[in-house]
Amino acid sequence: MTDREEDEDERAGVLDRLREAIAAGAAARAAAELNELHPSEIADVLESCPPEERAALWKLVDPRTKGDVLIEAHGEVRRQLIDESAADELAAAVQRLDLDALSDIYDELPDGVVEAVLSAMDAQRRERFHVVRTYPPDTAGGLMDVDALAVRPDVTLRMVLSYLSRYRAENERLPAHTDAVMVTGLGGNYLGRLAVIDLVSLDRETRVHAVMNRETEPIAADTPARRVARRFEDEDLVSAPVVDDRGRLIGRITVDDVVDVIREQAENSVMAGAGLDAAEDTFAPPLASAWRRAIWLGINLVSAFVAAWVIGLFESSINQIVALAVLMPVVASMGGVAGTQSLAVVIRGIALEQVKEGNRLRLFNKELAVGLLNGGLWALAVVLIVTFWFQRPVLSLVFGAALVLNLVWGVAAGTLIPMALARLRIDPALAGGVMLVALTDAFGFFVFLGLATLLLL
Amino acid sequence: MTDREEDEDERAGVLDRLREAIAAGAAARAAAELNELHPSEIADVLESCPPEERAALWKLVDPRTKGDVLIEAHGEVRRQLIDESAADELAAAVQRLDLDALSDIYDELPDGVVEAVLSAMDAQRRERFHVVRTYPPDTAGGLMDVDALAVRPDVTLRMVLSYLSRYRAENERLPAHTDAVMVTGLGGNYLGRLAVIDLVSLDRETRVHAVMNRETEPIAADTPARRVARRFEDEDLVSAPVVDDRGRLIGRITVDDVVDVIREQAENSVMAGAGLDAAEDTFAPPLASAWRRAIWLGINLVSAFVAAWVIGLFESSINQIVALAVLMPVVASMGGVAGTQSLAVVIRGIALEQVKEGNRLRLFNKELAVGLLNGGLWALAVVLIVTFWFQRPVLSLVFGAALVLNLVWGVAAGTLIPMALARLRIDPALAGGVMLVALTDAFGFFVFLGLATLLLL
Predict the structure, then answer these.
(1) Do B344 and A271 count as a contact with CB atoms less than 8 A apart?
(2) Going along A263-373, which residue ranges are E strands?
(3) Which of A46, B69, B105, B200 has its CA 20 to 30 A from that of B414?
(4) Torsions phi, psi of A24, nearest 5?
(5) Where are the domains of chain A?
């Protein structure tokens, strides 16, 4: 048995034991089993259950870990868990969270809970929280923790060490992922970073300014999350300073937040292609799921009827040569597939920022050439197949020509649509596929039936 | 102008300036401009160029950073850069790399270079390198660095600190991302981790065993990379110990490697849906691109001809009622879209490990219900449209019934295909979409034309 299977079985085992315990009325046993897990594992278990079971299990989660479980849960599942919680319990659970985590779920909390949480904060914490809330969640400011440790440049490493010991003694722990201490000047201006590893391995009488790293550019608070992720990837960062528009240190982004951003982007690109929201609960009730997916089907229905209308224009041609009806979906489908390939390459190129002003035209020309080459190759193949099948050489030539034209049309659309959507700030992964298929279907039917009408009738 | 646009302009600017400098024969200026960039940025610039320009720029890259640029470059681009390099230069460039990075590109290096690199290593480094090479690149063993620092449990923090200072003095630097020192027992058995931050903030006379973290489970060397990524995400790790099958510490995985794994998965899921390899060079020469994409188009052509053959079975029905030809693509396309939605939800559920033995049936039933609900909803709409358009109530009823049936067929296929492919260890993102569309097209045509033949003729 492979590692993955074992692991899957182990997880399935937990779920099965939980179900059994609940069915047997042994809630205490189920609760003990559940609360042995890491908060992220509890969230996984909850996301693997249908809504009713999820509600029952949620009641068993230790109130002290409920806040962390909420943070780990996604989209609709999180919303359900919040709805299922009593207001006072919820307030107590989220009170314990880091400010950036609290900010993440803040907008989903009921009003009463929000007030209770705010009024329980001390003034300093409340002020810091308002700083985090100033920035949209998908920017550096929205991702940052406000608990960055900062020291002055003219102190010695020994003084930094004793500051850290004192901080720890007072707060019980240091901020998570403290791989560096920030160095700030007068007015809180960011000057550089002092790696913790330098603290332990360099001479203690050294002054901070002599060993601090001035090279890491701080991140502006309004930087979009995806650019933050790129910087972490490119520079292999664990944490990075965030500054406001006047260069003052206001927080710190850590790699765990960045990992979440990248994962969300990945999930989003899988789901968006089918017109789905990444927040969708895999085990949502059918009616809710159906309703959310209906819009996308409706959009596709309109585009399919446009294609049907195009076919309708050529009813009399089809009436005379039924083979046209047999072959037309092949032309449409091949254009769609070729276009989808260009779409994927260009969407990735845009995401990786390889596609820029200076090389758009070159990429377009390249894709066009690819479309022509593949159109030519497969047109040759289909001309042979169709000649053999229908014994009508002119029909096969029309079919081959329509195939080449629709492939070229497809790659052109597959290249230009995402470039245009990106300019309009619409996610090309979301709208690109439907638009493409609408265009390749309609054009495919039109060019094949049109050519046939001109040349065969 | 937004941040992103500015940034894009700045990057486009670099590329433009480089091109101008090269065109003007000012290679030295171009080289200076290029070598000011971070290796990952140099890789970005190279990936944004067509192959000829890329080769010219590569000659200008500082030989000392060439190794790092190679590591940052992807797939085909990396292969081209290796091909363009002289053997001795290449050997010198990769000599400088960390062992896990070297292992990543090792298989792509020409034989002569491999020998030169191995013979230049000292015995210890060569032995460590062989350990890394034992494990496939997509496992924990393949991802790990072998330079983990380890101490015994019975020493004091003061002794650990002086060990670190000595290590640093001898090696000029500590291993990257050293957020913790590993603790090993006799025979190198992994016992726990000592966070560096504890070293700086706890009493120096404390013994390691009193403060080490025993909770982080070490990662087995044969754990698949995707599971490693999940653990880092779930537990917010920066580094984690890797052990062999006897529990001995053999290395350490750091978060920057994990970020690369997650990013690659994301890229892969975008590209696989169009039958493309994530290694594909966006600016590859058209002939090479066309050739690689041709196979996918060929597979699709076969599936499209199967659908055409299904239509061919009903030629005489279409001959009598041309409206069938007009409407049949709508039935096929709606089934495809509904199926794609189920496919995306199930592929994500499998990736997040939410879909397990115990809830597969439930998920299937849910998707089926979603298909029925949406089939019913849109069948109602199309019956009205078609009655109005063609004035044939029985035809509209047949059309509505076929739509419902193909939607249900689509969601069933969209749910079962990825589950089956995952069992067979085939990437569902790669093969799932084509198989689905082949099934929904063929069934859509069959059920609509078949019902019409039965009921209308």
Answers:
(1) yes
(2) none
(3) A46
(4) -80, 5
(5) 3-136, 150-272, 286-456
